[in-house]
Design brief:
By secondary structure, this protein is α/β, with parallel strands linked by helices. It has one domain: 3-Layer(aba) Sandwich (Rossmann fold), CATH 3.40.50.1820. Helix content is 36%, strand content 18%. It has eight helices and nine strands. The strands form two sheets. It has a seven-stranded mixed beta sheet with strand order 3-5-4-6-7-8-9, sandwiched between helices. A two-stranded antiparallel sheet has the order 1-2. The relative contact order is 0.15.
Length: 240
């Protein structure tokens, strides 16, 4: 791979590479809203897959974590560009899967449907109804004044709100998906509701699989990590 990785705006993206035995494969891991590459769940998934021979690359989208850029400019549309910049840095001989959590799942769906370099798609509590999510979680917050979930380092921007409304949902992309897709969702997720994955799975063509993990929340938990990793490993083994 070519490091450092720059996006279209010339900003450096912070990534962490986990080498493993299957050197001609690479699993890209993307985070959700207010997250970054160092969230415990993403680290656990990367380490679990690496132990099974799958090289991984954890990504902080621009404006998040140690990546350059302004958080206020972080949108699904810009993160699609970030992901494509990462794909540009990967040798053509490498077979790539993308695994995205929450809004990172929406980024993956909207990228995979248009970019043939993504051979396999995995979404973990993937966001589908983006407009609805924005209204539910941030409808009472004034863009430019308030913050996401009262986190002072995560101001709610008009650009973010407008972009989630622009996309509205990822269902059209889900229906047009042409790569094998594994969807994983916890039944106790109160941030991105399980019905998001239910709806995407319903319209997506085969091959597809929906795994519901009983009692797991939005970021899952240590008790469910092993199941998530095993399911991803099996999916990759079959399709990547």
């Amino acid at each position: 791979m070519k490091f450092p990785i720059f996006n279209a705006q010339g900003e450096v993206l912070d990534v962490a590479h986990h080498p493993a035995a299957k050197s001609d494969r690479l699993i890209l891991l993307g985070h959700g809203v207010t997250g970054n590459k160092d969230r415990p769940f993403l680290i656990a998934v990367a380490e679990g897959l690496t132990a099974r021979g799958w090289p991984c690359l954890r990504i902080s989208f621009s404006g998040n974590g140690e990546s350059q850029g302004r958080f206020e400019e972080s949108t699904i549309s810009k993160e699609i560009g970030d992901l494509q910049a990462v794909l540009d840095a990967i040798p053509d001989t490498t077979r790539v899967a993308y695994c995205g959590h929450s809004m990172g799942g929406a980024v993956g769906v909207l990228t995979a449907v248009r970019d043939e370099r993504v051979r396999v798609l995995i979404t973990l509590a993937g966001m589908v109804f983006t407009k609805e999510f924005c209204a539910r979680e941030f409808g009472e917050v004034t863009p430019g004044e308030g913050c996401m979930w009262d986190e002072e380092t995560c101001p709610l921007s008009q650009a973010f709100v407008d972009d989630l409304h622009l996309h509205e949902s990822t269902l059209d992309a889900a229906a047009a998906m042409q790569v094998p897709w594994l969807l994983v969702h916890g039944t106790a997720d109160d941030v991105v509701f399980p019905r998001d994955s239910d709806a995407a799975h319903y319209v997506a063509p085969e091959p597809k699989k929906l795994l519901s993990i009983e009692g797991a929340g939005h970021s899952f938990d240590e008790a469910s990590y092993a199941t998530v990793i095993e399911e991803i490993d099996a999916w990759l083994g079959e399709y990547l």
